[in-house]
Write a structure and sequence with these properties.
The chain is of the alpha/beta class and about 280 residues long. The chain has a six-stranded mixed beta sheet with strand order 8-9-10-5-11-12, sandwiched between helices. A four-stranded antiparallel beta sheet has the order 4-3-6-7, covered by helices on one side.
Length: about 280
């Protein structure tokens, strides 16, 4: 996967060669945000191919999670535009952006700890579950049919991570790595067009990280969706990402293949220079 050839795209970006000819799933132009007069992100411009596995890296405090918060409208940008599958997301809420096709996970796990693994996944599927409130309250046949379909789909998603046997377990009782995986499954349950993973390998051992890498590849192939991840584990980033953007002080300083990024002088200086707290 990381041997993919990147080609120039009209927006002064690069996307995988196989995605040329179809509209990029994400086009971000001149994005910026200020907090109390302090510029946190400035002129962030990036294009993600329709089936690309992309990485966003940078020193601590570079603004990576802020970018994810802007893309998902946790923060409303001060300037710039975000096009999702060609549609401007201006004035959309977090819920509306999720419905439009952006799903994400978080640095700090945000599961419903007291609910079962199955119910956590079903929560992610709520927007695609058909049927009226009346059919649910009266337990009509259409309700049971839709409930069965949703549970079957949830089990299929859990099977990607070999978690189907954990469906009845309480989410908060799972080991840390399993909770991380469950959060990805719940995000997939929203049927996204692009999946944003914020440090998915955090707290995982090398074996778990290697398995995660294969899971991400499988998700990309199986669903044909783009994946963008923030990650400090460079072995994961360099091993799985096709295009990598490097952020420093709220600005992109480089984007290219893993090989190009590893040899980029600005990137080397950013990582060797004095870092800031994230």
């Amino acid at each position: 996967m990381n041997g993919t050839r990147l080609v120039d795209f009209p927006s002064h970006s690069k996307i995988p060669e196989r995605d040329i000819g179809v509209r990029p799933i994400l086009e971000v132009n001149g994005l910026g945000i200020d907090f109390g007069g302090l510029t946190a992100v400035e002129d962030f411009t990036l294009t993600i191919g329709r089936t690309e596995i992309a990485g966003l890296i940078g020193p601590n405090g570079a603004g990576k999670t802020t970018i994810f918060n802007l893309l998902t409208k946790v923060y409303q940008p001060t300037r710039g535009a975000i096009l999702l599958d060609g549609k401007d997301t201006a004035n959309m809420t977090t819920v509306q952006v999720c419905h439009a096709g952006i799903a994400r996970t978080f640095q700090n796990i945000r599961l419903f700890q007291d609910m079962s693994v199955m119910d956590n996944v079903l929560v992610g599927m709520h927007q695609s579950i058909k049927g009226s409130l009346a059919s649910a309250m009266l337990r009509l046949p259409v309700y049971w049919k839709e409930e069965k379909r949703a549970r079957q789909e949830a089990m299929e998603l859990l099977s990607i991570f070999h978690m189907q046997d954990m469906a009845g377990a309480q989410a908060g009782s799972l080991p840390y790595g399993a909770q991380r995986r469950l959060e990805i499954v719940r995000a997939l349950a929203t049927h996204p067009k692009i999946l944003l993973l914020d440090e998915p390998a955090a707290g995982m051992n090398p074996s778990e990280t290697g398995e995660l890498m294969e899971n991400i590849r499988d998700i990309n192939r199986r669903f044909g969706i783009a994946i963008m991840l923030i990650e400090h584990d460079m072995s994961l980033v360099m091993g799985i990402c096709e295009g990598i953007a490097v952020l420093n002080y709220g600005r992109i300083i480089a984007k290219g293949t893993p090989k190009e990024i590893q040899s980029n002088p600005e990137v080397i200086e950013a990582y060797l220079g004095k870092g800031r707290g994230d």
